[in-house]
Amino acid sequence: MICLIAGLILFLGVHSLAIVGLRPRLINQWGLSLYRALHALVSLAGLVLIARGYADTRLAPVVLFDAPHALRLLVVALLAPVFPFVLASALDCRLRTTLKHPLLVAIKLWALAHLLANGTLAGTLLFTSFLAWAVLTRISLKRRTGSVRVTVLGVGKFGDAVAVLGGLTLYYAFLTGWHHALIGVTPLP
How many angstroms separate the CA atoms of 175 and 178, rounded? Predict the structure, then answer.
């Protein structure tokens, strides 16, 4: 559990620098290239620790609740827009404009759905942490001025179609095999 907690602190901590106002100062001190390189390294280290720590906790899980079988269908439905929203965050499309921050919406849906489906202490810690971070980030974005926007890919008038069809295709791939191959759990009931 220590490894999971350390990974969450590293990953979410480095992604929270803008929330607490440190990102602009660090970029001014170090320069954008060094900041991005260090951000990427700390993020990667955090992800590795999260994956390793979560995998370790699955060997001897502390079970808080057992999710009912019917709840898995709700979880599958809640997760359906996640990949389209992730793609919309990188595309010039109406979906991105409407949601304002589709990646944060995707993270919130992903975390909530996984909270419902995973009744372990480690799962609760992991998914609650990401949900809380996404909520706090969204609140801070409303208060920030001059925040840096992500460069989006121009796909013309087909941006929404690319986001939805591409996202649903990725979701189908995760449902039918990738989730099991990467995580070791089959998501379909």
Answer: 7
DSSP characters over 79-134: HTTHHHHHHHTTB-SHHHHHHSSHHHHHHHHHHHHHHHH--BHHHHHHHHHHHHHH
Question: With bands split at pLDDT 50, 70 and 90, how would you rate the model's confidence at 38?
Answer: very high
- Which residues does 82 contact at the CB level (< 8 Å), separation at least 6? 106, 109, 110, 113, 167, 171
Residues 50 and 7 sit within 8 Å (Cβ to Cβ): yes
Where do the structural domains in the chain lie, given as residue ranges?
Answer: 1-60, 62-189
Least Cα distance to 42 among 54, 56, 26 occurs for 26
Specify whether the CB–CB gap between 153 and 89 falls below 8 A.
Answer: no
Residue 6 and residue 49 in contact, taking contact as beta carbons nearer than 8 Å: yes
Looking at the DSSP bridge assignments, the partners of residue 153 are 91
Helix (H, G, I), strand (E, B) or coil at 146: coil
Does pLDDT of 165 surpass 90? yes
Q: Which residues pair with 91 in a beta bridge?
A: 153
Nearest to 101 by CA among 57, 54, 139, 155: 139
Q: Are 115 and 65 in contact (CB under 8 A)?
A: no
> Which tens digit of pLDDT belongs to each residue from 45-87?
999 999 999 999 999 999 999 988 888 889 999 999 999 999 9
